[in-house]
């Protein structure tokens, strides 16, 4: 990784200032595709938006290429998750020759290092990001301020449909306990009023270490004895332990909510979130 960044830095030396004089140009680079969506929605046709990490790729393990570095070097606005999720982007930002504006979504949502990094699962994140993007774009292109603000409002109105659904689910969750394979869906679960009871196990899985035998036995017993309303499985992570727990849940008639860490190819952020919330609604409707 270090060698890769050194190579990228040397590669950029000759081109980092090429576009720095175009002060009203808006070129947005986001680390992930789900942040590219509000960036495009608010910007409209007044600039360009591109993202670096392709759908289905784990940003934790991502290693940027020279082409990614060149893309980042031309950006006037960068949207990154922060909270340690895409820290490789900081290296690319440092090689940018423009008057770069970096929007760190974790900081925008008042989170600090060590907090759950999956902040895009908070139902309010994208609406707050839309407002931030409108304000950022307006500074770069003041003449289009009203357009950016109007676009942000339209995007926020779309997000309200999911936010309303989450509030409805919260009225029926009865503050029940749930278990998760990883802390991916936790912000949404909290908003819906559920309580995650296997944080130690989930954090171990996320860090790619073996969970303690004690945590695993407890989780298996909680599933067998229906001490959880449902089990949330991150199907993007291949793990025999998690697959076994999902099968155990099905065997014991404990519902399984299937989620992914990033937007699947062929869909969008709103529909992605909605499809996962609808799984919870289906479980509630059966109670």
From TrEMBL:
InterPro entries: AdhesinB, Bact_metal-bind_prot9, Lipoprotein_PsaA-like, ZnuA-like
Keyword line: Metal-binding, Signal, Transport
Lineage top rank: taxon: Bacteria
Biological process (GO), any one: cell adhesion
Keyword Transport on entry: yes
UniProt-listed SUPFAM superfamilies: Helical backbone' metal receptor
A GO cellular component annotation in the UniProt record: cell envelope
GO terms assigned for molecular function: metal ion binding
Subcellular localization(s) per the UniProt record: Cell envelope
Pfam families reported for this sequence: ZnuA
Similarity-based family: Belongs to the bacterial solute-binding protein 9 family.
PANTHER family: HIGH-AFFINITY ZINC UPTAKE SYSTEM PROTEIN ZNUA-RELATED, METAL-BINDING PROTEIN HI_0362-RELATED
Record-given protein name: Metal ABC transporter substrate-binding protein
Species in which this protein is naturally found: Fructilactobacillus sanfranciscensis (strain TMW 1.1304)
């Amino acid at each position: 990784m270090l060698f890769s960044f050194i190579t990228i830095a040397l590669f950029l030396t000759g081109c980092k200032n090429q576009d720095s004089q175009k002060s009203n140009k808006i070129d947005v680079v986001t680390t992930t595709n789900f942040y590219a969506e509000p960036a495009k929605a608010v910007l409209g046709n007044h600039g360009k938006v591109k993202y670096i990490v392709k759908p289905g790729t784990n940003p934790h393990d991502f290693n940027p290429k020279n082409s990614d570095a060149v893309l980042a070097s031309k950006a006037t606005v960068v949207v990154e998750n922060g909270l340690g999720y895409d820290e490789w982007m900081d290296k690319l930002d440092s090689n940018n020759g423009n008057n770069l504006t970096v929007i760190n979504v974790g900081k925008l949502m008042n989170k600090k290092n060590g907090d759950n990094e999956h902040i895009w699962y908070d139902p309010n994140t994208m609406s707050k990001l839309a407002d931030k993007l409108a304000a950022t774009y307006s500074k770069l292109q003041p003449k289009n301020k009203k357009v950016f603000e109007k676009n942000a409002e339209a995007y926020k109105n779309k997000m309200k449909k999911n936010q309303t659904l989450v509030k409805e689910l919260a009225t029926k969750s009865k503050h029940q306990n749930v278990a998760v394979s990883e802390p991916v869906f936790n912000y949404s679960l909290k908003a819906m009023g559920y309580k995650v009871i296997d944080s130690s196990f989930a954090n171990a899985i996320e860090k790619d270490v073996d969970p303690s035998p004690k945590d695993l036995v407890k989780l298996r017993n909680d599933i067998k004895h229906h001490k959880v309303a449902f089990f949330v499985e991150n199907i993007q992570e291949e793990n025999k332990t998690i697959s076994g727990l999902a099968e155990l849940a099905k065997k014991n008639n404990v519902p399984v909510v299937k989620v992914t860490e990033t937007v699947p190819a062929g869909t969008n952020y709103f529909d992605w979130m909605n499809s996962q919330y609808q799984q919870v609604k289906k479980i509630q409707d059966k109670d």
